[in-house]
Amino acid sequence: MARKEKQRAYAFHRMSAGEVVVRYLLLAVVLVITVLPFVWQLSTSLKGIDENIYTATPRFIPEHPTFANYTKVAEAVPVVDYAMNSIIVAILVVGGNIVGATMAGYALAKLRFRGSRLVMGALLATLILPGEATIIAQYVTVRSLGLTDTLLGVALPGMIGMINVLLMRAAFTAIPDELEMAAKVDGANAWQRLIHVNLPGVRGMLSVISIFAFIGAWDDFLWPLIVLTDPENLTLTVGLQYLSGTFTNNPRLIAAGTMISFVPIVIVFAVLQRYFFRGVEEGAIKG
Amino acid sequence: MTDTVKMSSRVREHKWFTPWLLVAPATLWLCVFNLYPALNTVYMAFTNKKPLGGGEFVGLANFARMLDDDQLLYALTNSVLYMLVCVPLLTMLPLLLAVLVEKKLPGLTFFRVAFYTPVVASAVVVALIWNWMLDDRGAINAILQALKVVQEPLPFLTDRWLLLFSAISLTVWKGLGYYMIIYLSALGNVGRELHEAAAVDGAGPVRRFWSITVPGVRGTMLLITILITVSSLRVFSELYVMTGGTGGPGGRVSSVVMLIQMYSTGFTGHLGYASALSLLLFVLTLVPMVLLARLNRKDG
């Protein structure tokens, strides 16, 4: 009995049974508020054309669940192509950030060289620039590179995010210098030290910036909206907006479209959430 | 320092160009996609550059045009309303949420992930979901009518003010999880001992929240206030999607960023004016950031 008591106290940090119940009740309320709209949309997307979706009391379980809306959306707009385009952009952005931010972050944290302060200053200065404020000039640049209406044009500016360079630098700085010293004495050059000595120590941060880069690229709307115009070659978010303009009178199809965009990112996040929350606890997000 | 100097004379640290090779890609991106566009924005703001052609120097004409741009006035009004609602709600509610998910309870990971879902979903997806729920024949109006709260459906998506407040409530809903996470990492630094000591002294949960938790995360709270103020000025996707890209009735439910986007392409395109609006946006977002820097310095 006493042992059981002790275990409970340990597990719940001496919460009373009443407090535990209240906490779970509150958690349930917030859960309903945050998740119900998604469930409602999923439910709408699975309802057949014969089922009334405008009932006075919302029905969450479709009478005859069907994927017909999904196939219909895929026939009407190249939604699979849009999804592929979003994946290509996201992969380019994630890859670019992993390589570019790691290299620069390491050099700025561990190597002394002329001009490093200048680069750091410029990096910090970019933080006060809201992305939307330079988007027009960004567009002019991408246009002069001949990249309007291409996926590369969508991905390119975000392929090395300045905030990611700073985050990687912070992660490398946290690794004790003794490791670097020892590797230097052993004759390892900078590249070897980066890959074999320092990289294992920044995996947490690397996963956080990868997750953020992926979500950011997948969800981005304003930039692809400006760069892409050809309806054949959109990313999912812009394609969805286009889709909703085409099917204003059929909420089932729009619901199916939104789910095609929503489900993959939720799965990616649910699978990787452990690394994300661990990174958060290690202080990856401090504004 | 002397140690490291000795060190580097004994072992060669790296070739002189290695650091530059490592920072080269990032520096290239820094210059081409950050610094150059920033300078170019300032330059273009003083020209009449169009998507095709134009580009002559026009002095302050673009800024003069702002003064009698009704749409800009609406956009700025909307931003102020956004701030007035979002700042108090999004500084307090996420903190309460963070306190709720901070303690270790079975199944908590599930709740954390679920609360973060609206953040992970794209604003376009979320706005389309809300469009459907707030539709004349959507779930919210159906429930309100079934409960006899209203006779006619409320025009959430067609009335200027209702539409704006629908968009604002979406932004608040979507922001809860985001700021919750920031608070969560700050709460880790608020001592548990303090809470326990206060509890022993008979302070209830409400008292402990105001006297221990809130002062403990004051710095983060200030930061979040600024972040929300800045993001109220940067609103785009929610308003764009909820108004179907039109800016609502009479274009009155738009934001500065929506105007920038509007002037970026097509026949209405005017890159010079869009750049001037970008400059305005930058200056407006600078105000809260300068305030933050000053307040932080005062705190020492």
TrEMBL record, chain A:
Main location: membrane
UniProt membrane topology term: Multi-pass membrane protein
Compartments it resides in: Cell membrane
CDD domains: TM_PBP2
ABC transmembrane type-1 domain ranges (all copies): 83-272
Keyword Transcription regulation: no
Top-level taxon in the UniProt lineage: Bacteria
CC terms in the record's Gene Ontology section: plasma membrane
One Pfam family per UniProt: BPD_transp_1
Keyword line: Cell membrane, Membrane, Transmembrane, Transmembrane helix, Transport
Transmembrane segment boundaries: 21-40, 87-109, 121-140, 152-172, 201-218, 253-272
GO biological process, one term: transmembrane transport
Similarity comment: family membership: Belongs to the binding-protein-dependent transport system permease family.
Protein name, per record: ABC transporter permease
Lineage: Bacteria, Bacillati, Actinomycetota, Actinomycetes, Propionibacteriales
